[in-house]
TrEMBL record:
Keywords: ATP-binding, Nucleotide-binding, Transport. It comes from Actinomadura graeca. One of its GO terms (molecular function) is ATP binding. It comes from the Bacteria. This is ABC transporter ATP-binding protein. Residues 5-230 form the ABC transporter domain.
Length: 294
């Protein structure tokens, strides 16, 4: 398999508004992918297209070599934990496991029961009486016990406290490693993505701004500071992502596959959060601000 998700010119329109536009992506197998962007950027739309809950308005999308939700075999390959880690308040933990077994032909009951026991969840307790973190863990258990090849999670930890988030992400990484899962995780919490993800996609204004393996992205982005300079006069191959200026100094974040040799610049490393914020920072015609990187 060359890609777990491949999109070409993918778009989704509601009336005159494009929720996702001209999305071209190729996600390699075996990655834990962080999908990040501001609210309304198109993250949920992309994930709903990937699981077949929406049909494209333009372009094409392929998941694990097939069209999303094209049949039982395709559905069995993909696990999905939607926003707010949905569970049924009136059903017990055990009811959820029985429902999972009925709906999923590849259901691993032993895995589900072992995970529920390890988490200390009472099988007879109704989901509506669980804490937010416990409901999230139950939803993750349902997704993992389906034994998918790809697990997609849409903002699963947004409403959780820091400890519950850490426990959820730890369980996710353990499951991904143990069962060789590819994972796509949508979140606006960059610090959480930094802890678990090795591939990054940044969506802004319904378009992909940057995508790639985290190590490669960090190695190819640099913070430059030095005497004030017009960014347009940088050498070819140095793409300015954002820039800010004082009367005497310029601070730039640039993408360059090669080393920066100009002795006038002080070259600094860029962290993942700085990189994400730079691509999310709106540009203005007269001053493409880099306030987040100061």
């Amino acid at each position: 398999m060359s890609a777990v998700l491949k999109a070409q010119g993918l778009g989704k329109r509601y009336g005159r508004r494009w929720a996702l536009s001209d999305c071209t992506l190729e996600i390699p197998p075996g990655r834990v992918v962080g999908l990040v962007g501001p609210n309304g950027a198109g993250k949920t739309t992309l994930l709903n297209l990937a699981v077949g809950q929406l049909a494209p308005s333009a372009g094409a999308i392929e998941v694990l070599g097939g069209r999303p939700a094209s049949g039982p075999r395709q559905l069995a390959k993909v696990g999905f934990v939607a926003q707010d880690t949905p569970t049924y308040a009136g059903l017990s933990v055990d009811d959820h496991l029985r429902l999972g077994a009925r709906l999923n032909p590849g259901w691993d009951g032993a895995l589900a029961r072992e995970r529920i026991g390890r988490l200390g969840l009472d099988p007879s307790r109704k989901a509506g009486r669980l804490s937010g973190g416990q409901r999230a863990q139950l939803a993750l258990t349902l997704g993992v016990a389906k034994r998918p090849e790809l697990l997609i999670l849409d903002e699963p930890v947004a409403a959780l406290d820091p400890l519950a988030r850490r426990e959820f992400l730890s369980g996710l990484m353990e499951a991904a490693t143990e069962h060789s899962l590819s994972v796509i995780l949508s979140s606006h919490l960059v610090s959480d993505l930094e802890r678990v993800c090795d591939h990054l996609i940044v969506l802004v204004d319904s378009r992909v701004r940057v995508a790639g393996d985290v190590d490669d992205l960090l190695a190819s982005h640099h913070r430059l500071s030095g005497p004030r300079r017009d960014p347009a006069r940088l050498p070819a191959g140095q793409e300015v992502v954002t820039a800010s200026h004082t009367d005497r100094q310029s601070t730039l974040l640039v993408r360059s596959e090669g080393a920066i040799h100009d002795p006038a610049w002080t070259v600094g490393q860029v962290g993942l959060e700085d990189l994400v914020l730079a691509y999310m920072t709106p540009k203005t015609p007269d001053r493409p601000a880099l306030e987040a990187l100061r």
